[in-house]
Design goal:
By secondary structure, this protein is an alpha/beta fold. 31% of the residues lie in helices and 20% in strands.
């Protein structure tokens, strides 16, 4: 039985802890905050409850497998899962109103033809067919297996672009390009293009830089469905925490890890900020990989090879407005509505952060769960508005390199802005509420109170640089969208969570825990479950 110290109590870290405990190891988790879940949290006030992180679940099979492998009680006996139907309503600036059914390809085609005109559904379906090829090519190496040492193949975009005739009639395959370029080239309708871009934005990607392989995001949602957990996604974190405790995992809250202890050969424990050292045979880090390598592990010399891609872009941030509304939730309203930006070009330009202000009329996701456990009574309604925005950059910061040669990602200026600027948060919250009126008519008049959260809050709670959202790993773009290897350059130190392979999002974070547990139990040559 090995002693395993886990840094952080996020979803990926807890997934690893539960699996390792079942394998017979002694597991202790050290979390700097006073609670678990990482970015999966709940805000409560006056009988209202709100998810402050993700509000919906895709690929629930990841957590079904986790609960089956770590105990007799399946996932559905621990949380109440239900499919969201329609999967989403989309409202466009020209007044087009589209509702997409959950996990129904034929239904999606019919809905698109009805809303956009004959042929729109076929064009979308053809793109999803090519996205299925991406899924088939990358499912194992980008989700079910540890990251291979040779990443060159994953640096190539597997999205099968349309073959065109080139010079002298020769047939040539065009470069896939970015997701935004793919949307314009293949969908040929600004509303369809906006629909595709919205999937990338939801994961914190800029569609102008995300590779065409990001088409796999709507493929996964459309194929495997969209799910809601009663009580909010926080209830899933609560169930995982209880599963860990039931399997003997120890949790230490308010216990910040200052550094990883190591000798000449391997990790030998963790050093806490209060000066204590906890010895361990193996260490699992669930904190942001960039922070681990640049702050927690500064004495180690990596040499010329980096544990994460050199130029991989940080994700965007999330701006969230939690609204306590007077008045009952109408029975026929969809759970999720996406209000698309009036000026998509201006929205994408604002993600650069250079203007110092976010887009005034952005794409807004409106979540209105029909969940009695999240409201004081049926005469009130909780609503969550989210917008993808530039991450936070401290006002006094400039892009610089830390003393050990690592980039100070916290102060990386590209795609960032200062969210602590006077008055910015409340002004922007007003604009977001106004934009969301397209989904909830008369919204402003129903607001009793609101709570606003910016990338500053995300950074404080999760440690993600600038409050950036770690998206799922994507193939293509020369490997820039791959995540840190689950195996660190130092023996005995492993990485889980959104910034480690296979990346962010609830399902991918859960898989990172499965991969780390497999490597520790089976050895570093383990290639995943067959």
């Amino acid at each position: 039985m090995a002693r395993i110290a886990v840094i952080g109590a996020g979803m990926g870290a807890m997934a690893a802890a539960a699996r390792l405990a079942v394998a017979g190891h002694s597991v202790a988790v050290y979390e700097r905050a006073e609670t678990y879940g990482g970015g999966v949290r709940r805000f409560e006030r006056d009988g209202f409850g709100f998810d402050t992180g993700p509000g919906l679940l895709h690929l629930p099979a990841v957590y079904r497998d986790l609960f089956v492998k770590t105990g007799r009680e399946p996932l559905e006996s621990c949380v109440e899962l239900s499919q969201v139907d329609p999967a989403a309503r989309h409202v466009f600036a020209d007044g087009t109103d589209l509702s997409l059914p959950n996990a129904s390809r034929a239904g999606v085609v019919a809905a698109l033809d009805t809303a956009f005109g004959t042929g729109a559904g076929e064009r979308w379906s053809e793109l999803i067919n090519r996205a299925r090829d991406v899924w088939d090519a990358t499912r194992r190496p980008l989700l079910e297996e540890p990251l291979g040492r040779d990443r060159r193949m994953l640096g190539r975009d597997p999205y099968p672009t349309v073959v065109k005739r080139g010079l002298f009639g020769r047939r040539a395959r065009a470069e896939a390009g970015s997701l935004a370029e793919t949307a314009l080239r293949e969908l040929r309708d600004p509303r369809l293009a906006a629909l595709l871009r919205s999937h990338a934005l939801a994961y914190g990607f800029d569609p102008r830089t995300a590779p065409a392989s990001a088409t796999v995001l709507p493929y996964v949602e459309q194929t495997f469905g969209t799910w809601y957990v009663r009580g909010g996604i926080r209830a899933l974190a609560e169930a995982l925490f209880e599963r860990c405790r039931a399997r003997g995992v120890e949790f230490h809250f308010g216990a910040e890890v200052a550094d990883v202890a190591f000798d000449d050969k391997r990790a030998i424990g963790v050093e806490l900020s209060d000066g204590r050292r906890v010895e361990a045979d193996t260490v699992v880090s669930g904190i942001d990989a960039r922070r681990l390598y640049s702050e927690r592990w500064t004495p180690y010399n990596f040499g010329p090879a980096r544990p994460w891609p050199d130029e991989g872009p940080l994700g965007c941030g999330r701006f969230t407005v939690l609204l306590a509304l007077s008045g009952a939730r109408p029975a026929d309203v969809p759970h999720r509505t996406v209000v698309h930006a009036a000026d998509p070009a201006a929205e994408l330009a604002a993600l650069d952060g250079r203007s110092g202000s976010p887009c005034a009329l952005p794409t807004v996701t409106v979540l209105r769960p029909d969940d009695p456990s999240l409201r004081p009574d049926d005469a009130h309604e909780p609503v969550v508005l989210t917008v993808t925005v530039p991450r936070h950059r401290p006002a006094a910061g400039t892009d610089r390199l830390a003393g050990d040669g690592h980039r100070d990602w916290e102060r990386d200026e590209a795609g960032a802005m200062d969210w602590t600027a006077a008055g910015l948060t409340e002004r922007y919250a007003d604009q977001v509420v106004a934009a969301a009126d397209a989904a909830v008519p008369g919204l402003a008049e129903r607001v009793m109170w609101r709570e606003v959260r910016t990338p500053v809050d995300t950074e404080r709670e999760t440690g993600a640089p600038g409050g950036s959202l770690p998206g799922p790993a994507l193939a293509g773009a020369r490997g820039e969208f791959l995540r840190a290897d689950n195996r660190s350059p130092l023996a005995g130190l492993y990485l889980a969570g959104g910034s480690a392979h296979p990346g962010g999002g609830l399902a991918h974070a859960g898989m990172s825990g499965a991969l780390v547990a497999g490597l520790i139990v089976e050895g570093d040559d383990w290639r995943g479950s067959q």
